[in-house]
Design brief:
5-stranded mixed β-sheet; formyl-coa transferase, domain 3; 18 helices; binds adenosine-5'-diphosphate; 8-stranded mixed β-sheet; binds magnesium ion; 3 domains; alpha+beta; Heat Shock Protein 90
């Protein structure tokens, strides 16, 4: 007797569904794709209980006829292709005709639909369908378009349910995906509801950059540069990328869309990162929305069960083109932001008076006394460059490494002459490095100062959760905080280094860091968070470009920098010091 048996269709479908639908976000993806394929211009997504009890999508697309509404649940039923050759010119997201069949195999689906051209008083059609059978069918009054409700997902595949991650992780996957659809379809009005509450309302906008402002924080969207374009290419690359000052700690913000399809593609990732080479510090990643429009015959979209990947016929060409455009965009932006030399002559600038000073062997007042606890902007009059002889700090004890400080340039760079070189120091970058190294060695397990007025910080539920998980860690940094309801924290003490800075911004950033490093090895995470918070503290309390420094402060900073490890780059990877040999200058003057 034969051992081989044919599985019943419902069982076969449940098994096949496992390939397409592993988590609620995958249902959302298929339904969003269907709505967009149906040319919807308004799409609302309702999620209850992270999709386990309800996923509903309402669109105003072309709708379906009664016959199509009955057909759409069958496997391999599609209106989008007829033969595999059609994939060479595919313009829709869907093509396999298996999404609705798979979803209905593992949930209970209610479909209401009415075609776009039908008269105002026409009825639509409702079908309830599950596990290969129609449960109910009726004519119903409904608007044009399609409304799909997916209830009790995985009710008959309990193992799949067990593998779901935490609610917040599943919700993030849905939200992340929804955002991606919003980015690539800027003309569509998207709404997202979670457990009955509207959490995102994104009306149509003109560009993906405007979309970013709707989806993320305003700062991140303002750091986006439009990617330069190259009309010579046989395909089009467009989009937005973050400038050199903005980055993330993971790759999640690097979005690639090939013919509007949100995809993962290692060639595109590499191309983007190559463009940022020497621009971003190690282990930092850009924010990017890259759109590739390419002839459908130059890619294969049928390489992944969930259509999350594409293959390029000529991957190297696309990669090189992308990295080239990214590089050029960043270069152009940098050359625009570097301000031209002022027209004033050196002599009329007080900061430019040349001081010939012998650096003291020992200065008892450390850099912290000079900088950390003494925010300049509040008392600018105290920081006019005094003549050196009035500076009690600078005992003119001769030591071997004399250097002559010329002064500050643009209130940003300290200039001095040393060993036949003109040396320029970026005061912020240098001070930041000095403080960072100091915090890393001396400020572990420090005491915070109790705040006169405890500060309340507003965050999302997820962020409060993330920060509270690391409460002990913050405490060791001198930051004493507590939860205050679901969506805020109260801070009772903070280290003096953070005085005068925005604690809200600081905690926001820390929360983002924690979230982006979810799942990292515990020890490594502790170390990274430590580095991150100290870098933040250093950045916040270091002198800024634009701060006027006294000669004593300039001296102290240079000396401290000379004794600091990793002194040539700041914690964000920018150079602290740059020098020009005398010979180079002489070449310029044709001497
Ligand atoms: P595919 O998208 O690969 O064709 P699906 O199972 O997702 O397969 O959908 C089957 C068919 O149902 C589609 O080809 C389309 O004709 C129809 N359909 C599905 N969703 C919608 C919708 N929101 N609006 C109009 N038609 C739809
Ligand atoms: Mg589909």
């Amino acid at each position: 007797m034969s051992k081989i048996r044919l599985l019943p269709q419902s069982e076969a479908l449940k098994i096949a569904a496992g390939e397409v639908i592993e988590r609620p976000a995958h249902v959302v993806k298929e339904l969003l794709e269907n709505a967009l394929d149906a040319q919807a211009t308004a799409i609302s997504l309702y999620i209850n209980d992270i999709g386990k009890t309800l996923i509903r999508i309402v669109d105003n697309g072309v709708g379906m006829s009664i016959d199509d509404a009955r057909m759409c649940f069958l496997s391999h039923a599609t209106s989008k292709i007829q033969t595999i050759h059609d994939l060479e010119s595919i313009a829709t997201f869907g093509f396999r005709g298996e999404a609705l069949a798979s979803i209905a195999a593992i949930s209970r689906v209610t479909l209401m639909t009415r075609q776009r051209e039908t008269p105002v008083d026409a009825m639509g059609h409702m079908i309830e369908y599950s596990e290969c059978s129609v449960l109910q069918e009726a004519a119903v009054a409904c608007p044009t378009g399609t409304d799909i409700l997916v209830r009790d997902l995985f009710f008959n595949t309990p193992v799949r349910k067990k593998f779901l991650k935490s609610d917040e992780t599943e919700w993030n996957a849905i939200q992340w995906l929804f955002h991606a659809f919003c980015m690539s379809n800027v003309g569509v009005h998207f709404k997202l509801y979670r457990d009955g509450k509207l959490v995102l309302n994104a009306p149509p906008v003109a560009s993906a950059k405007d979309r970013a402002a709707q989806l993320w924080d305003y700062d991140a969207s303002q750091a986006l540069l439009p990617l330069l374009e190259d009309v010579q290419l046989p395909f089009r690359i467009s989009g937005f990328i973050s400038n050199h000052n903005m980055w993330r700690y993971g790759r999640q913000f690097m979005h690639f869309f090939v013919n509007k399809r949100w995809v993962k593609n290692s060639e595109l990732s590499k191309g983007l990162l190559k463009g940022y080479l020497n621009v971003l510090p190690p282990e930092r990643f850009p924010i990017a929305m890259i759109f590739i429009d390419i002839d459908a015959s130059s890619i294969d979209v049928n390489v992944h069960p969930k259509k999350e990947e594409v293959k390029f016929v000529r991957p190297g060409v696309v990669q090189a083109a992308l990295s080239n455009l990214v590089k050029k965009t960043l270069e152009q932006n940098l050359s625009q932001t570097i301000s031209p030399m002022p027209q004033k002559t050196f002599i009329t600038q007080p900061q430019w008076q040349s001081y010939q000073v012998q650096a003291p062997r020992e200065i008892d007042q450390s850099v912290s006394a000079l900088f950390d606890f003494d925010p300049f902007p509040s008392q600018p009059e105290a920081f006019q460059a005094p003549r050196v002889e009035q500076q009690p700090l600078l005992e003119p004890t001769p030591i071997h490494e004399a250097f002559a400080i010329m002064g500050q340039l643009f209130k940003t760079y300290i200039l001095f002459e040393k060993d036949n070189e003109l040396v320029m120091i970026d005061q912020h970058a240098a001070h930041e490095r000095v403080l960072y190294e100091k915090y890393q060695t001396k400020f572990l397990d420090q005491q915070g100062t109790t705040l006169l007025f405890p500060e309340t910080i507003r965050l999302s539920k997820q962020q409060v959760h993330d920060v509270m998980q690391q409460r002990d860690f913050f405490e060791r940094q001198g930051i004493d905080l507590d939860g205050l309801g679901d969506e805020s924290l109260v801070i009772r003490s903070a280290p003096p280094q953070l005085r005068g800075t925005s604690l809200q911004e600081f905690i926001n950033d820390a929360a983002r860091f924690i979230n982006e490093h979810e799942g990292m090895d515990k020890t490594l995470f502790g170390q990274k968070l430590n580095e991150h918070l100290h870098a933040q503290m250093a950045c916040k309390s270091a002198v800024k470009a634009g701060d006027v420094l006294t000669l004593a402060q300039m001296h102290q900073l240079i000396r401290d920098l000379q004794q600091t490890p990793n002194r040539f780059i700041c914690v964000h990877g920018r150079p602290t010091t740059w020098s020009m040999p005398r010979s180079e200058l002489e070449k310029k003057f044709k001497r």
